[in-house]
């Protein structure tokens, strides 16, 4: 038998959210039933709910920053128990057979992973995300949330946290390295916290200085604007740039702030094509790259690291009634720094 669950649903592109119910699948042998406590709002939720990234699947229940408690497990589950604090991130299944999956890089599944929402399971049924009170997920795609992080500030780590942790680890941020974080929003503020905890010297490059006090409090050593005079002064300074913004940038000017063998990594997704000159790279053996989220193993590593270092997202907790307004505020950059829905407010 399926499980009937209260949820927030948007019936069509750009439509207001409605309280209704959805059906979750029956608990299978290796499934975990999670009582959702909090669901973060990611900007990608907005893009997909407003159908800005191509055709979306409606009705839609967004949400891939999910934190809660296990309320039931299938007979064959060994990784989680009733009462465990757990989370679910951006995907809930993958092929488990390709090179990427076998390497623990399920986010790059060669057959395409099954996204937590706006996707389809192997049987063709749609996936519904975390703007709901419960979700059923295979145990292999459920993360343990350590006791050192409260569930509300842990929820955004399941997307924003791993999106920034993964490139920082992959490109070796740590003692003796200089890292620049472009933008200080939902992604950027966690990039600052994590880079600082890894031991790097951290500089924020922001549109304005309005968040300087926050940036320094989060662990930034320096806080600068990204104007051309500043970028010219910072030429050759950084080993790694994490670009978290979705706006167009003067890419060449940023590339020239990299030192020898430095890398600029895009984790934000600008709408337009970005332009750069090859000479900005070959002059100092620089690289330009992109990074996605992380696999299950790395996401668990990130959660453990954040618990060890006391890192959580800076959040504004909202009710189900506030979601439409929160979407507009995210688009207007009016949030410090992540909205999190208290899912107890979803049932009518």
From TrEMBL:
EC number: 1.1.1.2
SMART domains listed in its UniProt record: PKS_ER
Gene3D superfamilies: Medium-chain alcohol dehydrogenases, catalytic domain, NAD(P)-binding Rossmann-like Domain
PROSITE patterns in the cross-refs: ADH_ZINC
Leader sequence segment: none
Required cofactor(s): Zn(2+)
Classification via InterPro entries: ADH-like_C, ADH-like_N, ADH_Zn_CS, CAD-like, ER, GroES-like_sf, NAD(P)-bd_dom_sf
SUPFAM superfamilies on file: GroES-like (SSF50129), NAD(P)-binding Rossmann-fold domains (SSF51735)
Any one GO molecular-function label of the UniProt entry: alcohol dehydrogenase (NADP+) activity
Domain Enoyl reductase (ER), chain residue ranges per copy: 14-341
Recorded superkingdom: Bacteria
Catalyzed reactions per annotation: a primary alcohol + NADP(+) = an aldehyde + NADPH + H(+)
UniProt keyword annotations, A-Z: Metal-binding, Oxidoreductase, Zinc
UniProt record similarity statement: Belongs to the zinc-containing alcohol dehydrogenase family.
Protein name: alcohol dehydrogenase (NADP(+))
